[in-house]
Specification:
Layout: H1 6-9, H2 11-24, E1 35-40, H3 46-54, E2 71-77, E3 83-86, H4 97-112, E4 123-129, E5 135-139, H5 155-167, E6 172-179, H6 188-196, E7 203-208, H7 220-223, E8 234-236, H8 242-246, H9 251-264, H10 277-318, H11 325-348, H12 361-379, H13 384-396
């Protein structure tokens, strides 16, 4: 597969290294890195789109929520060979893509258990292949409305909150995947994207299952960007059907069938050169590269500012004197500020630790104030004349 501007494409691996570095430190990325997040309903065809990029079956499949942790998928173009590497299994090459699927499932269960729960801690997977372009995508759990089995009853809100963690960031492009055989005006992915990107500046629409639309209907108005317009437009793809997947239909054959479908369909043949999986991958590669190029100056400036701050701290530590009264005062103020911030978070209920056994913080104060305080107030005995006198003095003072 031909690649684009190699000099510009090298920007993507640079951002990948930043993501990996923070992941290895066990901390979230403190910067709003340019990235592409994939959102869509459970049956929208997200997994098939990603597998078509790689040309291999490697993602978990099944009913219900299959993607239960964010998967940071880094595609790397190489001249020969095909393999995968996980950040949590450093140094191990996976040449069998079925093993990659099993590793994703095992690593997911390790963090979330086997009860279909979810976690926002990502899995980092690099895939090296001559058939891919340099591209990084974050595959997020599919949106759902119903809890299955012993899933939490609020699973819908949990997934929504996780998606929002990614797509609310200004530097995150949103790949909104919607099936053509459902009402596109009510697409979960497009509605969610519109909430955080009302002008459609960061959203890239992907329309799947165009071959499964009712006879006599098509998605031409959407693909021509006339209905529900987005600045970055829409790209249509045709994935393998469930029967094709179960019958292990070759992805190369599926891509050839996709190409034939668009060239032969009367509503799409005039757009055929801007539809299909190969075009989608190329378009995403170009858009991510351009997006990184546009956001790099501000990112670089922020990194430099943080580096200078750290170098200043290091210089101060070199001259550290535990008996310096100024340092003691500064340390005490820092502790007080940290305590104040933690206390405020506890009252607001926005802290990192959530008590699941009893009410705490602001929730407990709220309950006491609204339930216990009125009851105690009624039990109080007081002299009304004395109370009026005290209120009078309080007002005058």
């Amino acid at each position: 597969m031909a690649t684009g501007n190699r000099g510009m494409e090298d920007l993507i691996p640079v951002v990948n290294k930043l993501q990996d570095a923070f992941a290895q430190l066990g901390s979230s990325v403190p910067f709003d890195l340019p990235q592409i997040a994939v959102v869509g309903g459970q049956s929208a065809g997200k997994s098939s789109v990603l597998e078509n990029f790689v040309g291999r079956d490697f993602l978990p499949r099944g009913s219900g929520i299959v993607t239960r942790r964010p998967l940071i998928l880094q595609l790397n173009h190489v001249k020969s060979g095909e393999w995968g590497e996980f950040l949590h299994a450093k140094g191990k090459k996976f040449t069998d893509f079925n093993e990659i699927r099993s590793e994703i499932e095992d690593e997911t269960d390790r963090m979330t258990g086997s009860n279909k729960g979810i976690s926002s801690v990502p899995i980092n997977l690099r895939v090296y292949s001559p058939h891919v372009l340099n591209l990084t995508l974050i595959d997020l759990p599919g949106m759902t409305k119903v809890a299955v089995g012993d899933q939490p009853v609020d699973i819908e809100m949990q997934i929504r909150d996780m998606l929002m963690q990614f797509i609310t960031k200004a530097n995150c492009l949103i790949l909104a995947v919607s099936p053509a055989n459902s009402d596109l005006a009510n697409s979960d992915a497009l509605k969610l994207a519109k909430e955080v990107d009302p002008q459609g500046l960061r959203t890239i629409g992907v329309i799947t299952k165009l071959d499964l639309m009712d006879e006599g209907t098509d998605a031409r108005n959407i693909l021509e960007n006339q209905l529900l317009p987005l600045r970055r437009g829409y790209i249509g793809v045709v994935n393998r059907s469930q029967k094709d997947i179960e019958g292990r239909k070759d992805i190369k054959a599926a891509l050839a069938a996709e190409r034939k479908f668009f060239l032969s369909h009367p509503s799409y043949r005039h757009l055929a050169e801007k539809l299909g999986t190969p075009y989608l991958q190329k378009a995403l590669n170009q858009q991510l590269t351009n997006h990184i190029r546009d956001t790099l100056p501000a990112l670089r400036q922020r990194l430099m500012n943080q580096l200078q701050g750290l170098e200043k701290d290091v210089a101060e530590f070199k001259k550290f004197n535990a008996d310096d009264p100024n340092l003691k005062t500064k340390a005490m103020l820092t502790f007080l500020q940290t305590f104040s911030l933690d206390f405020e978070k506890s009252i607001e209920g926005s802290g990192d630790l959530v008590d699941t056994s009893e009410l705490s913080g602001g929730a407990k104060i709220n309950k006491i104030f609204h339930e216990r305080f009125p009851y105690e107030l009624v039990k109080m005995e007081f002299d009304e004349r004395e109370l009026r006198r005290e209120i009078g003095f309080a007002i005058k003072n």
